[in-house]
Amino acid sequence: MNVLSAKNLTKIYGGKGDANSTHALNGVQIEIESGEFVGVMGPSGSGKTTLLNILSGIGKPTTGTVEISGRNIASLSKNELALFRRQKLGFVFQEFNLLDSLTLKENVMLPMILDKRKPDEMEAKAKEIMSLFEIYEIANKYPYSVSGGQQQRTAVSRALVNDPVIVFADEPTGNLDSKSSKAVMHCFEKINTERNSTILMVTHDPFAASFCKRIIFIKDGKVYMEITKKASRQEFFDRILDCLAVLGGEKNDL
Ligand SMILES: Nc1ncnc2c1ncn2[C@@H]1O[C@H](COP(=O)(O)OP(=O)(O)OP(=O)(O)O)[C@@H](O)[C@H]1O
Ligand SMILES: [Mg+2]
Predict the structure, then answer these.
(1) pLDDT of 96-134, one tens digit each?
(2) CA Rg, the chain, in Å?
(3) Ligand 1, residues at Cβ distance < 6 Å
(4) Which of these CATH numbers, 3.30.420.10, 1.25.10.10, 3.30.559.30, 3.40.50.300, describes 34-61+77-253?
């Protein structure tokens, strides 16, 4: 089943005639099926964040369309889009974006609180997901008193509580050390294999990317190439490194 379909996406920042305009996307097509775990990689400035923002309704394309679950998101009003994003999409960012004044569990429950769900239902859902990610024992702690990896696993839990049709993640391991990155990537892998969650993740990190099943490489605002996992994660990791070498521009990031 198709979850996301994007056609002919272009994005020009600063207006077409403007001498300072930037062509951030130049005709991108992407199809994502239910249960896929897709990575987006590419050099700095290649358009990854622009693409993710447009696919998730944060930004508007200059031309082109994005359909999620068969709905053209440009056809939604501002309020409808806000509701659609809260109920149908999950978001994970590099900076965790947790509220410092709430416990980890309250942070996880936040999207459900906004939807006025029943307290025992919220409790059960938070317990289920936080247990899966091995952070339920620390559910009553505050973000400042736990590690970066535990904060990010809380953010991933929060992204999942409304059973989104797709989870968007922009550099989810960007602020984490290698051990915490690994734990967070195991969480993504777990929800993808055990719960069939559909994930689209932007990353610079070939190790994080090796957990994906498919990688789309972007260069100069275009899809440059695509690879699919066939064997082990190690074999996929090696092929990702080969692609990055061909793509160029990543050496300083590694
Ligand atoms: N709000 C904006 N206004 C003007 N130009 C922008 C804006 N956001 C991004 N750009 C430009 O669009 C291009 C693509 O930027 P984008 O942030 O999508 O790249 P990226 O692949 O996410 O890079 P990075 O790996 O550094 O995060 C760049 O040339 C960038 O300078
Ligand atoms: Mg970016």
Answers:
(1) 999 999 999 999 999 999 889 999 999 999 999 999 999
(2) 18
(3) 13-14, 22, 24, 42, 44-50
(4) 3.40.50.300
